[in-house]
Amino acid sequence: MKASRWLALAFVVTSVAGCAGGPVRRVSEPSARIQQITVQADGSWQTQLRIENFSSIPMRFDSLDVALSVAGEPAGRLTAQPAITIGPESADVVSTTFAPSVAAKLAAADALASGRSLDYSLAGTVMATPDEKRQRSFEIKRSSALSPAPGLPGVLR
After folding, report:
1. Assigned CATH for 24-145
2. What ranges does the record give for the region Disordered, renumbered to this chain (predicted)?
């Protein structure tokens, strides 16, 4: 009888101690990917960049600087100062406009005209502040592909 009381007491103490820490505050590497490229009439590209926060806490995304390559050719740099807070395990979209290289323009025009996908890669950094703490630099490295959007001329998704 006495052993079962000690066992019950030990269980209660362990259960209460487990609750004392609160939710886990995990900071994970964010990610970025291109959600859409729209080729403008003047030849510039409007890019919609999706920033993903995989952390269990909100993060404020202060700046972004990544090199974009399409079809293996350097296209240019995407830079932005979004100054947005993205909630835990959420994402948001930032738009930037830039003038791509001639080789990138030709690769995008070919993909749009032929209805084929366009491979791209991003490499660079994003500066973010996890939940009002010290700002940190996170490396972004991503490769994927975009396809022409049906019914939307000049749009790759």
Report:
1. 2.60.40
2. 137-157
